[in-house]
């Protein structure tokens, strides 16, 4: 899966799960300010992305530094690369 495909999958999953407007979902869109997600949504987001990508994300301290869709997609790409290497 390419970086672009990961980003598009993140957009698709979050748009569906949280009924977000895809036009507002740019790489630089803030998950919390621009897209309006809150802390409870963040928990749901982690769960749905874990299922989608087959990754364990919830225990990662790094996930707390994710603010934009681009950050989120890059984090998933990095996790997938680590999973493949392991």
TrEMBL record:
InterPro entries to which the protein is assigned, alphabetical: ACP, ACP-like_sf, PP-bd_ACP
Q: In which pathway does it act?
A: Lipid metabolism; fatty acid biosynthesis
Q: In terms of domain of life, where is this protein from?
A: Bacteria
Q: What is its main location?
A: cytoplasm
Mind listing the UniProt keywords for this protein, alphabetically? Cytoplasm, Fatty acid biosynthesis, Fatty acid metabolism, Lipid biosynthesis, Lipid metabolism, Phosphopantetheine, Phosphoprotein
What is the annotated localization of this protein?
A: Cytoplasm
Q: Does the keyword Lipid metabolism apply?
A: yes
Example GO CC term: the record gives: cytosol
> Domain Carrier: where?
1-80
What residues bear O-(pantetheine 4'-phosphoryl)serine in this entry? 39
Gene3D superfamilies, per this entry? Answer: ACP-like (1.10.1200.10)
Q: How is it modified after translation?
A: 4'-phosphopantetheine is transferred from CoA to a specific serine of apo-ACP by AcpS. This modification is essential for activity because fatty acids are bound in thioester linkage to the sulfhydryl of the prosthetic group.
Q: Which HAMAP family is this protein grouped with?
A: Acyl_carrier
Summary of the function given for this chain in its UniProt record = Carrier of the growing fatty acid chain in fatty acid biosynthesis.
Q: Family per UniProt?
A: Belongs to the acyl carrier protein (ACP) family.
This chain's protein is named Acyl carrier protein
Species, as recorded:
Desulfotalea psychrophila (strain LSv54 / DSM 12343)
Q: Which gene encodes it?
A: acpP
């Amino acid at each position: 899966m390419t970086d672009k495909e990961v980003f598009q999958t993140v957009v698709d999953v979050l748009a569906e799960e949280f009924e977000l407007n895809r036009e507002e979902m740019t790489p630089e869109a803030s998950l919390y300010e621009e897209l309006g997600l809150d802390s409870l949504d963040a928990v749901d987001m982690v769960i749905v992305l874990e299922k989608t990508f087959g990754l364990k994300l919830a225990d990662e301290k790094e996930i707390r530094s994710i603010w934009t869709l681009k950050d989120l997609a890059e984090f998933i790409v990095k996790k997938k690369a680590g999973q493949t290497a392991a």
